[in-house]
Specification:
Number of domains: 3
Strand order of the largest sheet: 16-15-14-13-21-20-19-18-17
Distance between the termini: 67 Å
Shape: globular
Structural class: alpha+beta
Number of strands: 30
Number of helices: 12
Pfam families: Beta-lactamase
Protein name: Beta-lactamase family protein
CATH class of the largest domain: Alpha Beta
Strand content: 25-35%
Radius of gyration: 22 Å
Organism: Falsiroseomonas frigidaquae
Low-confidence stretches: none
CATH topology of the largest domain: Beta-lactamase
InterPro entries: Beta-lactam-related, Beta-lactam/transpept-like, Diverse_Enzym_Activities
Helix content: 10-25%
CATH superfamily of the largest domain: DD-peptidase/beta-lactamase superfamily
Amino acid sequence: MPDWKAAATEAEAITRAWPASEPGGAVLLFDRDGIRGEFAGGLASLAHGIAFSAATPTRYASLTKHVFCAFALHHGLDLAAPLGTLLPDLPDALAGVPAWRALGMTGGLPDLMQSYGLCGVPYTTALDNAALDAFTATLPGLDTRPGTEVSYSNTGYRLVEQAMARHGQVFGVWVEGALNAALGTGFRFPAAWDRPLPGLADGYWRSAPQQEWHAGSYGMALSASGALTGSARDLATWLRALLRGDGPAGDVLARLAAPAPLADGRPTGYGLGLALAEIGGRRLIGHGGSLPGHKNHFLLDPESGAGVILLSNREETEPMLPALRVMAALLGLELPPRAPELLPEGLFIEAAGPAWIEHRAGALSFLGATEALYAGAQPGEAISLSPYLPIRLRRDGEGIAGEIGHAPRHFHPVRPASLSSGMAGTWRATAQHAEMEITIARDGSATCAMGAGPLHRRAELTALDATRALLPIGAAPWPSRACLWLEAPGVLRVVTNRSRVLTFRPV
């Protein structure tokens, strides 16, 4: 039987840690029959001093994905259809990806935001659908061959949503109309960040070292990958209907949660907008969501019909772990211990290609994406709990070997090196209208300049070896690093975890 008292104690501790004068959030406990507990702390608006509660509308971000997939199944989407048959004007490389792989994170689709970020365009830049369509048409290929790796991307959701809309099946209209009417919920589907919505919580991030709060902003047109807004109570109403199998989208939970297999038949931890997590041998279903200043997660236990929702409007919240702690308390399970000592620390690269990792104090970054490490079931094994970036690694002499995204990886330590003179000069990605200049000084230090007008900036490069270097990209609260890889003479690839296809050539 679920231990609601233990779960409530954990939930209350989470919300109590959010000071009354700062951003906060809500934690909600529920099962198929009703809400079992509501806990909240902090403010939904610093400007107006409005408290955050379980009734506060907020941005769900990627929690939207499973709702869209339920809509798509309910409206008869052919999951086997290649994207090119749904959207005939797609680039050839993207057109052959089946819809189910595009939605199941095994399609290898480059993520649009990370791709245009590699061109020097900030994520706060206002980009409407026309601009995003034009940029999508320039993408020269896929990050990975479909079915070979789990690589999280929002692009497939935007494309499938567009395809369905062309046939009169408009997700936003269904959400704000039929879905709300059936459930009595207040879901909204804003097409852009700046669309005013009554009572919507602001998202906040904190700068260092001043520790001042800033309102989050986001310029990209919103889509089925993350546009939905609503309260914790709204989301619980929807999830309870899914657990019962009587929601307005029908009995679709098992189909949404079925893990997408890789091409070789191995199961992944991701289905259709839902991800799988396992603690103490118990299989949980859920998803996380992140937009600037908004951090969310929900988890369901289909066996008991219980669930937990955590919605927060402070960027520093790491929502998956506290949600797991609440579920562990509810079900009497133990989380695996953190594993900072299992892997050697430092920077590591593969023998060839752009893949690199950095391990510091139990946190592992892979191509700029970072996950906490935990002790795996096998001795010496370090794993992530994330289904979006599954990691299973172990020490291999001085190096690190195993799997990331279910793809085999073998890394060796980075040694002191200077960049090849072949990387110096001005480079251009003509189709994407992007340009960079790499300068190598006599002392071996190197910099890269990108961007036009007031967006022009110069950043120091960290050499991984003679043909590979790390470039700082992005800005607070989402700074990251890309790998500049001299793939061949005159061919410079710029790579992050979610975008691996952009190629620059010398001017």
